[in-house]
Each structure stands twice: as C-alpha cells, then as structure tokens.
Design a protein that fits this description.
Blueprint: H1 2-17, H2 22-34, H3 41-66, H4 68-87, H5 92-120, H6 123-150, H7 154-174, H8 176-188, H9 199-203, H10 208-235, H11 241-269, H12 271-290, H13 296-310, H14 313-325, H15 327-358, H16 364-392
Helix pairs in contact: 1-6, 1-7, 2-6, 3-4, 3-5, 3-15, 4-5, 4-7, 5-14, 5-15, 6-7, 6-11, 6-14, 10-11, 10-13, 10-14, 10-15, 10-16, 11-12, 11-13, 12-13, 12-14, 12-16, 14-15
C-alpha cells in the first residue's frame, strides 16, 4: 500500500508537469489564429500564476478540511477541465477565463502533495517526486509537437493532456481509501494538531522569513536561467540559435537528472548539506558562464552545471520544513513557500528582461549570481536560527 500510494503521487506530479510547457510550445501557432499580439502569452501566464499563489496560500486549510487525496483529485480535475476548455477556445478572452481554474488547481495540488511527501516519506522520495515533475514537463512539448506536426492542431495537444488528467482523476478518486489510511497511520504516530497559521502568524516564527526569501531567490534563478539562456548564448556569446536552444534545454534535463541522482544520496548526506552542494555547483556553473573566453563549449557546460546545482535545492528545502518548523506548522508554511516561489517565477524573469533592455544581456550571469548570493545568505541564516532554537529548547 505504501508503494502504491507513492506511485500515485509520482503519477500526479507527472500530470502537474505535463501542462507547464504546453503554452510556450503552442503559442507561436496560437497567437496568429487568435489574432492577438505575441506578448499576450504573458497575460495568460500571469493569470495562471495568480491562481497558483491564491490556492497555495489556502492549501493547508483545504487539505485539513477535505484531505490530501480528495484535494489532489479535485485539483487535477480542475486542471483537466481547464485544459479541455483551452482546446475548445476560439478567442483569447476564453483562454483567460479557463486560465483561472487551471492556476487554482495547479497551486493546490503542488502545495498539498509537497506537504504530504514531506510528512510521510524520506528525502529521497521528495527528490524523485520533483524529478517526475521534470518528466512531465519534458513530455508535454513532445505531445504538443506531435499534435501540431501530425494533426495540425494545437487544440488536440491540450485535449490529449486533458484526457490524461481526467483518467488520473478517476484513479485518484478510486484510491481515496489508501490516502486516508496513510494519513491515519501518521496521526497515530505523532503528537500535536495541524495549525492553520495566517501569514502574519507564520512570519513571526523564527526562520520563516529567511526560508521564504531563499525559496523566492531559488525559483527566480531557475526560471530566469531557463527563460533567457538561449538569448544570452545567441546575443552575447554569438552561438548559433539552433545550438543555443538545444543546450538551453539541457538545463532542464540537468535539473531532472540531478534530482534522480539526488534521491540516492539525500538521506545519507542530509537536506542541508545537499542544499550547500547544490549552491556550490550553481556557483561553478556561473563562473563557467561568465568567463571572458571564446570557448562557447565552456559556457554551454556551465548552464548544465547550473541545472545540476538547482536539482537538490527545491525538494530539500521543502522536505526540511517539518523538521525546521514542526509537523503541525508544515502545511501552512509550505503553502506560503509555494506562493513565494510562484511570485519569484512570475516577476523576476521579466524584471531581468527590462534590465537587459536598458543595459545589456551580458548582465545575465551577474543577475543570477545576485540571486545565488541571496539564497546562500538566507539558507545559512536559517540553519543558524534553527540550531539556536533547538539549543534553547
């Protein structure tokens, strides 16, 4: 039963990753048909991000009321209906409408499953969980590419993923007794009750502000790296666009592969040490990217190293939350962490774009380096605060 539930959680995270790259893959075909500017993809992205922030902040309360299994099933269903809605939309305003439940569903399932795994499973499973997200995010563009090439239809790409998630919803509904039994087993082995912390209450807990800033900086760095890598390689390093696009995609494969490897060593070395190792590898990658040499290969390898360094940070920060702040607070704090993460991914890449417009895209590694330093400072401050609090107790 333990393994069955874990398989379902992995499958749910594949489904969470599947739609993430669909819009980017389909938009070059979609926007002329919809007769809107190419920049309107940003509007859809912002609506989805807004929904994820709202649902993340409320995920702990919803989980306590409905249970993780049921909330996951309903969230996946909302996402499925939204994707099917995308597939029948023939105007931009309809896409904006369907983007609302899509964002709400994605944020709730992300926060709920992260907290469930942090409470019930070892650190290696958290790493593999996010590895499976990468699998879904990698498969999504291939589904859309096939739909565009073979069926000449972006709509069928969305409907295919939507149907998959409908099937997953049915599986999750059937498996609800398994979720309930696992939750009951956990409650019998621990003391204390789940707390519904408000944001201002959570911020008063020692270390929460630091972990939120660290999470914000990490997600900002990951998204900015992926979004602007090709442009930096082409415009500043003079690398051919086709080569740049291929190597930029390896940044995401580096994250996925790194999380797969991280699962084998995370429990042995501990979350905090894995975060430190990840930050060090990102630093090495940034040095390779910023080196003023004409060997383009060094820059490309640097991007892969940044991806490998990113791999352990997100899952290890999440998995350490119950240990840092208590199991009774983890649901609320993980929800706030998710909201902080989505804020970083929403606003920091466009801010870099504005800075690059007014200066030069050559500041790309410097911008990433500033985010890396912020992460390092906040994670080490958090570690000292947690150690100090444990000594006081």
């Amino acid at each position: 039963m333990y393994s069955l539930l874990l398989a379902l959680i992995y499958l749910a995270f594949i489904s969470l990753g599947l739609p993430d790259a669909l819009l980017g893959s389909a938009w070059p075909t979609m926007y002329p048909i919809l007769n809107v500017p190419v920049s309107y993809a940003g509007i859809l992205s912002m609506i989805i991000a807004g929904g994820t922030i709202v649902s993340s902040l409320n995920a702990n309360r919803l989980t306590s009321k409905f249970g993780t299994g049921f909330l996951t099933a309903i969230s996946v269903l909302m996402t499925a209906i939204s994707l099917l809605g995308f597939s029948v939309s023939n105007s931009f305003w309809m896409l904006c409408l369907w983007a609302i439940p899509y964002g709400l569903g994605a944020g709730a399932v992300d926060a709920a499953l992260n907290n469930f795994v942090a409470l019930h499973y070892a650190s290696r499973h958290m790493s593999w969980l996010h590895c499976f997200w990468g699998v879904g995010a990698s498969i999504g563009p291939y589904i859309m590419s096939y739909s565009l090439a073979v069926k000449n239809s972006w709509e069928s790409g969305y409907s295919s993923v939507g149907v998959f998630q409908i099937i997953l919803t049915i599986i999750l509904m059937i498996s609800l007794p398994v979720w309930k039994k696992q939750a009951q087993n956990k409650r019998t082995s621990q003391t204390g009750t789940v707390k519904h912390l408000k944001i201002h209450e959570a911020l008063r807990i020692k270390g929460v502000k630091q972990v939120l800033l660290a999470f914000f900086a990490y997600c900002a760095l990951e998204t900015t790296t992926g979004l602007w890598a090709s442009s930096y390689l082409v415009l500043h390093r003079g690398i051919e666009a086709e080569t740049a696009a291929g190597w930029a995609s390896l940044f995401y494969l580096g994250i996925t592969f790194g999380r797969f490897l991280n699962g084998f060593v995370a429990d042995r070395f501990g979350n905090r040490n894995m975060i430190r190792v990840g930050l060090a590898i990102i630093g090495i990658g940034l040095i390779a990217v910023i080196l003023p040499i004409n060997l383009g290969f060094v820059t490309l390898v640097g991007l892969v190293f940044i991806g490998l360094g990113c791999a352990p940070i997100y899952p290890c920060i999440i998995h350490e939350t119950p240990s840092n702040f208590g199991a009774e607070n983890s649901g609320a704090i993980i929800g706030i962490q998710m909201a902080s993460a989505y804020t970083g991914t929403t606003f920091m890449p466009p801010i870099f774009g504005l800075l690059a417009d007014y200066t030069t895209i050559a500041i790309y590694p410097i911008y990433l380096g500033m985010l890396l330093v912020l992460m390092l400072i906040m994670t080490e401050r958090l570690n000292r605060m947690i150690a100090s609090r444990k000594m006081e107790n």
